[in-house]
Each structure stands twice: as C-alpha cells, then as structure tokens.
Amino acid sequence: MTVMEQRGAYRPSPPPAWQPRMDPAPLLxxxxxxxxxxxxxxxxxxxxxxxxxxxxxxxxxxxxxQATALTKQGRLAVYPSSTGQEACxxxxxxxxxxxxxxxxxxxxxxxxxxxxVDPVAALTLLRGDWHxxxxxxxxxxxxxxxxxxxxxxxxVGLAHAARLKGDDVVALAMVGDGGTSEGDFHEAxxxxxxxxxxxxxxxQNNGFAxxxxxxxxxxxxxxxxKAVGYGMPGRLVDGxxxxxxxxxxxxxVRHARAGGGPxxxxxxxxxxxxxTNADDATRYRGDSEVDTWRGHDPIALLEHExxxxxxxxxxxxQAARDAAEAMAADLRERMNQDPALxxxxxxxxxxxxPTPQLREQRDQLQAExxxxxxxxxx
Length: 378
Hints:
Elements: H1 47-72, H2 86-94, E1 101-103, H3 109-114, H4 119-127, H5 136-139, H6 151-165, E2 171-176, H7 183-195, E3 199-205, E4 208-209, E5 212-213, H8 226-230, E6 234-238, H9 242-257, E7 263-268, H10 287-294, H11 298-308, H12 314-335, H13 356-374
Parallel strand pairs: 1-2, 2-3, 3-7, 6-7
Antiparallel strand pairs: 4-5
Pfam families: E1_dh
Domain Dehydrogenase E1 component: 65-342
Protein name: Pyruvate dehydrogenase (Acetyl-transferring) E1 component subunit alpha
C-alpha cells in the first residue's frame, strides 16, 4: 500500500482549470502606440543613437529604391520593398548585440543589411541565385524566410537551445501582420512562453497581408493583445518612430537576456510601395490613404526632431544622402555583373550527409551537364 492509498492521507486538490496562472494586467499593451519623437521623452534620447538611426533610415530608403529599380531592369526576380517601414528595420538591427540572432522575413532584407550582411548577398535569394546568399553564422542573421512565419519557431528553438547551453543570446524574430494568421506564429509564441525562451517577436503591422486588410484577419483589439493569451507581455509602438521602436525593442531584449522570457511587440507602420513588384496595390487601397501615411514618414519625423534640437544641419543631411548614394551605386554596379553559378551547388548545403535520393538527383544532373558540355552527337 502506498502512502496515497492509506486512509486519511492528504490529497492536494489541483487548482481549477480556469484559474489564471498570473495576473494578466501587467501583460496588456498600452491603449495607444508608444511614441518618443515629438514628446517630452525625446529630450532624453541619446543624440548619437538618433544620428545613427537617421543615417540608417536614409540609407535604407535609398536601398529600397535601388532594389526596386533592379527588378524593373530584370536584375532581380522580385523585391518586397520595406519603404515606409525603415524605422522598424534599422531599429531591429541596432537593438541587438553582436552575439544575438536576427530572424528576418522576406521583407526584412534591409534589417539584414543594417546588421552587416553585404547588400548584394542579401539580395541573392531574391535574384534566384542561391539558397541564401550569405553565411548566417557570420552576422548571426538567419536566412530570409519566404514562407510566412516559419522563421518564428526556428527563433524560439535557437534561443531555447542557447539558454540550455548557458549562452547569453537573444533571438529577435520579425514577421508581418499577415504572418500572425499562420499556425507557426501561435506555436512559436506558445513554446516561447512555456519555456520562457529569450525571444523578442516584432510584428510589423503595415496594414495589409498582400491585399487583405488587418480587419479581415483578426478581431483582436490589437495584435499586441495576443501576447496575453500566451502569458507574455505585449507592447504597442509607433512603427514609424525610430527612437520609440529602438527603445521598446532594447527593453524587450534586455528583459529576455535577464531571464524574463519573451515579448510580443506590434509596430504600427505602413507599406508605402506595393506588396512586391508583381502586385497592383491600387486594386485594394486608394492614393489618399497612401498619401496620409507619407505625412507620417519615419525619415521626416526623425529629421525634424534632430533639426529642432540642433543635432542635424544641411551638411549632415547631405552627408547621409551622399553615403546612401554611394551604397546604391556600388549595389547597382555589382548587381549588373552576371554571377558565375554552378548548378551542382543545389546539392551542397541540403544535408550534412546526402540522402540516397539526393545523391541520385545530383548524379542525374551531373550526367546532363556532362552531356551538354560534350555537344550534340554526330
């Protein structure tokens, strides 16, 4: 007879299934998006950081314009522009330490470049030349992820594994509002919260999942409110306020690194350009809506703040533009060079030990290439 089988033994009652595990109030986001620029908080912002953000925004806007032009010239197969969303992209890169990892979506090429990835290498996937185009370990930037939200569970897995190993690493995973409708989003948040993994989820809510507006994706008060259902804090921030996005992201990264677990951040921004060069955005939104958001441009907001505080003059603005133009010229020149590609590279980085099927496919392709090189039989 076990102790629990003895008559009169103490049997603790489990809590009711509905009982909250924690007070949800501290997890709720603010009613309005957090802002810094144009508020009293701006006076406390580090001038050096603001200048770095500004230079990054100007460079990012030029990068987006040049990459879009390359699609029209046939040098890129597709480009998902982040014009209008540069504040989120640059702030995400600057909020991380060198040892941290960035998990970008297909629209976050600019964040990868701001993190240190070569601009041409960052576009290699979108050119159709390579699986990724850069070494993810070199800059701690995961491959650009085209399937919606599948990078989020990967970020959780890496962060959880790093903590188990004792590594002081935080993962920052970026996703669009459309990605929050995918199962991977919910699975990632649930695992992250249960494991208290050091992950920060940044949702760039740019208004549309291609042509589907947010109101047809969710009835939640905000996407940041979804955090409460998983047991993590939610933050709502003005995604065009670079200083605010950087502050909120930095707070969440510090919180995760200190063992506080994950945070879900929703940045309210807007996609000025079409979904990609293959999209006709005029079919689902009007010019007046786009023009309204142009009035809340992230570069103009930060430039105004810096100018008002005497931290930026015309010479400083021109220097930022000149640096951005030099980057664009180099990108344009190198993208106009035809790369030397080896079709056999298709099989190089699939498995550490190729499977029998992969070896069979590799041999078949090699035979076809050899036959082509020998020319037609006479």
